[in-house]
Amino acid sequence: MICIRSHAVISFLLILCVCLFSRASFATNQAQIPTQIISNDTVKLESFRMGYFVDKTEAMTFADVQPQTFIPSANGLSLGTTSKVTWVKIELENANTSPIKVYLHHPYAYHNSKVELYEVVDGQLTRARLLDMDDKTTLQWMYRGSAVFDIELQGWQHKTLFVKSQAFSHQWFKLNLYDENQSKRALLGLYTDIALLVGMILALIIYNFLLFFSSRLREHFFYACYLVSGGFWIALSYGLLADLFDVYGSITLKWHLSLVSMPIFILLFMINIFETKKKYPVEHWALLSILTLLIGEFIYGLFDIVTALKYSSTLAAIMMLVTLCVTLSMLVRKQSIALFFLLGHGLFIGFSGLAVLFYKGKVPFNYVNSHGVGIGIVLEALVLALIIAYRIRSLESLKASQADLQLLASTDPLTQLFNRRHFSLAANQLLEQAAQAQQPVSIAMIDIDHFKVINDTYGHALGDKSIKQVADVIRSQCRHEDLLARYGGEEFVIMMPDTFGQEGFSLSERIRQTIETMTLKIGREQSVSFTISVGIAEVDAADPDLHDAINRADKALYQAKNNGRNQSQLFTE
Q1: Could you tell me the CATH number of the domain that includes residue 40?
Q2: Residue pLDDT, tens place only, 227-262
Q3: Cross-referenced InterPro entries, in alphabetical order (predicted)?
């Protein structure tokens, strides 16, 4: 009998201990979700404790959720793709005798499917509100992309808020509490930072499209399209489009494909800027492989955007790894712009990596983590703009070098006049233009008289000086549109567009008379003078043949020499 009683006492004590422990555990859990005490009229709660519960069935009613155990957390949450329906519990208490009104802000409501709010006092539901992004009749609590709910607290009243957040794919949100004045201030400056980021990207978009239209280089086009995708996604994902145009809900779901098109264009940019197809076949294959996956996801997203977005973070991580490896390979191969690209793309990968972890619910909710992709896009865009500038400068230097080489190839080094080869090419073009315009053209052939005697008597140095002097006089007397060239050793040619033979004769005479009056010094006291002979011919308008015109000018030149030199002769039949 005593034994039975002893067992009964022991059992009773065990049951009592279990009950006390359960009550203590329940009290501890409840204590971890502290009550937010409102003791004055100014309310600005942007960092406080609350609790959350994930409805895995996605079908529980408020009555089912109310008795559930809520996990203590901060007021900002990121739970990934497995928590599409999440409930939040907030404890509020008015420590004043007079009623007070506070405003619950859900600043990222625009990317949700639904938001619901339930107010409970003493275990009884007092007010319920439903905000469905696809139902215009429920949007009275939406303002500039944010859900704003007014909550009235009577004097000394304790109220429990239950908020249901239903996401399309990734679950992330933050809840804030304000008084009326602080609520207005929070709404006014809500998307200023996003507008600044998009404005910077817009300027780069315009700049790169202008570069593409002027240069026709495909990397400018791909980079501009990358910026268009990135800027649009920033405006969409961070609420600027919702703020400006009041667009949210399922209608915007497919717009998130811009997040997929963005890496597609950056891969095309890399393929073109690094010229991987020609120079780096292994890296080219790697970029094409991930490009194919992204294009496949984009096409799949047109039919099932929710599933596509579910895997977008994983695919983005793979893309970032591949592009990083390719960039490092370029750096090892001493590719000239690889370091710039590594810096810019490294910033994008770093911040976007934080964002990927944030969307998967692996890192806490803060501004950098939640806005990582946007920050990464802007920083990469600014650094890649340096690559564009470097590329432009390199191309300009290359063009300048090519122009210098072309000039050297077409210019006589002694006189800086065009050489015979360039004259033949340019003269034929001038003749074609003159024939189309039905304009006259004249040609003059100039030869220094007794040049061999000058060379033999005074040396080649003086001979070169005489050639340069004739070139300088020709240059000074001719018009800008005239084509001048050193045709041979001491021989020069002038093509004069829109000039009749007699006008060409007058010009030749001015050149000849100018040279006749000039001298070249030999030492301090001695000097020497020389003369030229000129033959002029007008091009046959009926048959504008360069070879024939030069032959006729040559005949006139020989006639001038046979007649005693130091004269000009106009060709006649």
Answers
A1: 2.60.40.2380
A2: 999 999 999 989 999 988 888 888 888 898 898 899
A3: 7TMR_DISM_rcpt_extracell_dom1, 7TMR_DISM_rcpt_extracell_dom2, Diguanylate_Cyclase, GGDEF_dom, Nucleotide_cyclase, Rev_trsase/Diguanyl_cyclase
Q: Which two tokens stand for residue 511?
A: 């050149």
Q: Give yes or no for a contact between 478 and 507, defined as CB atoms under 8 angstroms apart.
A: yes
Closest of 116, 57, 106, 34 to residue 77, by C-alpha? 106
pLDDT at residue 207, as a whole number:
87
- Residue 459 is inside which H or E element, if any? none
If pLDDT is split at 50, 70 and 90, which confidence band does 83 have? very high
| Residue 15 predicted with pLDDT over 70 | no
* 414 is a domain residue: no
189, 201, 248: which is closest to 227 by C-alpha? 201
Asked whether 508 and 516 are in contact (CB, 8 A), the reply is: no
3-state secondary structure of 157: coil
* 320 located within any domain: yes
pLDDT in tens, 55-69: 999 999 999 999 999
Report the alpha-carbon distance of residue 130 to residue 166 in Å, rounded.
Answer: 11
What is the pairing mode between strands 124-132 and 568-570? unpaired
CATH of the domain at 450: 3.30.70.270
Direct distance between the N- and C-terminal alpha carbons of the chain, in angstroms, rounded to an integer: 156
13/6 Cα distance (integer angstroms): 11
Question: Which residues, at least 6 apart from 24, have a Cβ–Cβ distance to it below 8 Å?
Answer: none
d(CA 557, CA 563): 10
Is residue 373 included in any domain, yes or no? yes
Bridge-based pairing of strands 532-538 and 568-570 is parallel
Residue 1 pLDDT level (bands cut at 50, 70, 90): very low
Q: CA 445, CA 495: separation in Å to the nearest integer?
A: 9
Planar angle of CA 314, 316, 322, nearest 5 degrees: 110
Tokens encoding 103: 């405003």
Segments in 371-459 forming alpha helices (H):
372-410, 420-437, 451-458
| Of the candidates 307, 209, 317, 221, the residue with the CA atom closest to the CA atom of residue 257 | 307
pLDDT above 70: residue 10: no
Out of 188, 223, 253, pick the residue that ends a domain: 188
Q: Are residues 264 and 284 in the same domain?
A: yes
* In a shared domain, residues 534 and 396: no
- List residues with catalytic annotation: 490
133: tokens are 């992004």
Kindly state whether residues 12 and 65 are assigned to the same domain: no
Same domain for 375 and 397?
A: yes
Q: Do residues 334 and 42 make contact, with C-beta atoms less than 8 angstroms apart?
A: no
Q: The CATH number of the domain where 374 resides is what?
A: 1.20.1070
Q: Are residues 216 and 259 in the same domain?
A: yes
Answer whether residue 25 shows pLDDT above 60: no
201 and 133 in a common domain: no
Are 9 and 95 within one domain?
no
CA distances from 235 to 38, 230, 350, 416, 545 (A): 35, 9, 21, 58, 65
Give the domain range for residue 52.
Answer: 32-188
Residue at a domain's end among 139, 159, 188? 188
